[in-house]
UniProtKB/TrEMBL annotation:
Keyword Membrane set for record: no
GO molecular function, one term: metal ion binding
Signal peptide span: none
Protein's GO biological process: tRNA processing
Keywords on record: CBS domain, Magnesium, Metal-binding, Nucleotide-binding, Nucleotidyltransferase, RNA-binding, Transferase, tRNA processing, tRNA-binding
Name listed for the protein in its UniProt record: CBS domain-containing protein
Family stated for the protein in its record: Belongs to the tRNA nucleotidyltransferase/poly(A) polymerase family.
Length: 390
């Protein structure tokens, strides 16, 4: 439909970027990106006439538009364009141009191919920079020497693609990347953009490999300030046991689970990460709770004395699931691990039959005392002192 509508409007239309690369690799891709030589806004308006149920979003300034499909998938349309970066790491200015110029402003050759979908040319690969050959040889190569300067997040993208596809950096690209790193370009980049890349790292299958690459290319502590790189621990953290994986289903913010692993060995330094990046309130609170929760658990659980169930419960109840695995790995004594497991499997699910309603029926009013009594009842139940009938 896109190709047809574009053809009728006299525009050339192309699929571009990651989708072309992944189609050629025979891999699945989620995003559909189109570039048209012509006004993308006009094309999307025209598409909207034929498909009135679709949701359209237009950005006049960038001459881009998106369609949200019924299944929630987003399809992006851009007017082929040249972007002028006013200074390194700035958002680009936009001006209309040809598909070749559009491709030339992209990051790597493997991401700079287009598949034409206009009538008469459907399925023709447009590959002016040798992306297909690089894809076959497994090479990440920039299109020009200023690529990392224009957009330093490409340093991180390069490492992500290296890790994902098991590719190599082309020699010149590698020295440009190292130059970009040593001239501190990442420091000039907005933390928000780096955070986006961090989230993408943790969505990759082999995150451990990417962390190794970050370390190898000297950007590990740039991305994760004050984190120690401990390969052995990281490898254990990111290949957690299958047996434990059921607890990971409780995790609400998967990428934070990754960040916690990176800081697990020196958790207090995670505050540097918190301060550097624009986190949501929920993300920030989770990190604070995990730091506190693990700190307190490490004081209690390894203790040689006999610890009561309710003490374990009280100490661990505020630890979010994002911190479970890190705590488990940090507890190196068998006995402490068993205590933690007891919390995970039993203690946290124990609920007394007596509830607030029962206390109200006895004439008690909700308040601090009320809460204290309920907590006490729960503690007794956890310790097995309070035995209620089934
Ligand atoms: N792009 C770029 N420079 C960036 C980000 C993106 O040149 N800093 C270009 C690349 O051509 C890329 C396309 O925009 O292919 C789409 O970007 P994005 O969706 O972020 O990446 P994908 O290549 O689709 O990768 P992924 O599979 O990780 O989504």
């Amino acid at each position: 439909t896109v190709g047809k509508t574009a053809s009728l409007l006299g525009m050339r239309a192309f699929l571009v970027g990651g989708i072309v690369r992944d189609l050629l690799l025979g891999q699945k891709q989620k995003d559909l990106d189109f570039v048209v030589e012509g006004d993308a806004l006009l094309l999307v308006k025209e598409l909207g006439k034929n498909l009135p149920t679709l949701k359209l979003i237009s950005h006049e300034r960038f001459k881009t538009a998106s369609i949200i499909l019924k299944n929630g998938q987003k399809v992006d349309f851009a007017t082929s364009r040249v972007e002028f970066y006013q200074y390194p790491a700035a958002l680009p200015e936009v001006e209309a141009s040809t598909i070749k110029e559009d491709l030339y402003r992209r990051d790597f050759t493997i991401n700079s191919m287009a598949l034409e979908i206009t009538f008469g040319h459907i399925g023709e690969l447009y590959d002016p920079f040798g992306g297909f050959a690089d894809l076959q040889e497994g090479i990440i190569r920039v299109l020009h020497n200023l690529s990392f300067i224009e957009d330093p997040t490409r340093i991180l993208r390069a490492l992500r693609f290296l890790g994902r596809f098991n590719f190599k950096l082309e020699d010149n690209t590698e020295s440009l990347l190292l130059d970009a790193v040593s001239s501190g370009l990442l420091e000039l980049t907005s933390p928000g953009r780096i955070l986006q890349e961090i989230k993408l790292f943790f969505a990759e299958k082999d995150i451990f490999k990417i962390l190794k690459l970050l370390n190898h290319y000297g950007v590990y502590t740039e991305v994760f300030p004050k984190a120690h790189y401990e390969e052995e621990f990281l490898s254990r953290y990111f290949t957690f046991s299958f047996e434990f994986s059921r607890y990971l289903k409780e995790i609400k913010i998967p990428w934070l689970f990754g960040v916690i692993g990176i800081y697990a060995k020196n958790l207090t330094e995670i505050s540097k990460f918190r301060k550097k990046y624009p986190l949501t309130r929920e993300e920030e609170e989770t990190l604070i709770k995990v730091t506190k929760g693990i700190g307190e658990a490490l004081k209690l659980l390894p203790s040689p004395r006999d610890i009561k169930g309710h003490e374990i419960y009280e100490t661990l109840k505020n630890l979010p699931p994002e911190g479970f695995w890190a705590l488990y790995l940090l507890l190196d004594r068998y006995r402490a691990k068993v205590r933690f497991r007891q919390y995970l499997e039993e203690l946290r699910f124990i609920k007394p039959k007596i509830t607030g309603e029962d206390l109200k029926a006895l004439g008690l009013k909700p308040g601090p005392l009320f809460r204290e009594i309920l907590n006490k009842i729960k503690a007794l139940k956890i310790d097995g002192v309070l035995k209620e009938q089934k």
